[in-house]
Amino acid sequence: MGMILPEFLLFAIYGVVNAYLPLFLRNSGYSASEIGILYGFFNAAGVVLPALLTPFLSKRGGFAFCLVILGILLALIPFPLFMIRGFAFAAFFMSLYAVPYRWVVPVSDLLITKNLGTRQERYGFIRVFGSIGFVAMTLLMQAFVQPENCGQREMILWISAPAFLFVFSMLARNLFESVRSLKSAKSEKNLSPVNAAEVCQCENPAESKDSSLSTSKNEKSTGQILKSFGPGFYAMILVIFFEFFGMTPANQYLSIYVQEELKINAAGLLWALNSIVEIPFMFFSGFIIKKVGEKPLILLCTLMVTVRNLLYAFLPGFAGALAGQLTHSFTYGLFYPACVCFCSKASESGRSQGMLAMMVFQTAYGISNVVGSPVGGFLIDLWGYRPLFCFFAFFPLLSVILYKIWAFSNAKK
């Protein structure tokens, strides 16, 4: 329960960045192709550095402290991003910002799932408060922000303020947990003056030493853990990759599409609708996953990405954008909890395995955006938005077909 407020504020940050950062960059004078390249740098950095740092964190733990550091970086980096002009500087600071931005949610997920223990189905309940934070922030910005008239200070304030609040909420949460742990330790000491573990060690130190040596020998390397996940895990990760790839237009270019193609100032409203429709699905995701299973849900939600892009492409005007946003209930509301559950089940044997499974999942997400963002920008500049949506509609459908063929051929062996 201690992560409810931090989760709310964390996704308030995502509300600003997802809905308004492309418009802020456009307002700073960058073309669609340049924004695509900037997001390419952003997503590449968001894959590489977290992937290098994740194995270290998985062994050391300290997820709560890590979230505080990531929050501070999210609060400070927007200052040079918007104050120092030039494409090269923008690429550098976008890359720098990507590291905490892409890493903070997986670390938060790991802290939540670790605290939940055997009650993993309650993940969706906590994550709903993130969606509420996203909705609240995008609606607030819809009411008060006109991107084309937004100044440098205003852009920095909107991006940095929720990050500072997130840091304060994590510090408060960590302080509360520390006090609770101290109280718990004191009560245990009063109830049981003799520490059974110490007695055990005194009675048989050799046995204790052998046990610790055995534990260290049983520890697997990162490569061994990754190999242990098996081909079924990586086949599903490939489907997840193409789901994220297919979501590139909705995630990276929707705000620009609404402002430039539809000529309406409704980016914040449509992004808020995104999260509103995902809330009930995410809230009941634990129940649905239990009934249907995480793998069938991932496949269904991937097919819905194709439907979403086709709605944008062929249902004209604002109605198409509205209908496309309603599918977010599947393409994220059910999809993301199903992916977290899938990674959790693939790594039931320990913290290191869980962190690495989430790293693979987030790497698939990052690489899909590294490839998709510049491709999307060039497609917009060359041919416009309908070819963009049609292009990205094809690959999720193809990935599900190939996965089913692979699964069928494996079942026959």
Secondary structure elements and pairings:
Layout (H helix, E strand, L loop, with lengths): L3 H24 L4 H29 L2 H14 L1 H6 L3 H30 L6 H22 L7 H40 L4 H8 L1 H14 L3 H7 L2 H16 L1 H14 L5 H17 L1 H8 L1 H21 L2 H10 L1 H19 L4 H33 L1 H28 L1
Helix pairs in contact: 1-6, 1-7, 1-12, 1-13, 2-5, 2-18, 3-5, 3-7, 5-18, 6-13, 8-9, 11-15, 11-18, 11-19, 12-18, 12-19, 13-16, 13-17, 14-17, 15-16, 15-17, 15-19, 17-18, 18-19
Describe this structure in words.
The radius of gyration is 23 Å and the shape is globular. The chain has helices at 4-27, 32-60, 63-76, 78-83, 87-116, 123-144, 152-191, 196-203, 205-218, 222-228, 231-246, 248-261, 267-283, 285-292, 294-314, 317-326, 328-346, 351-383, 385-412. It starts with a helix and ends with a helix. It is an all-alpha fold and 413 residues long. α3 runs antiparallel to α7 (152-191), α11 (231-246) packs parallel to α15 and α14 crosses α17 (328-346). Helix content is 87%, strand content 0%.
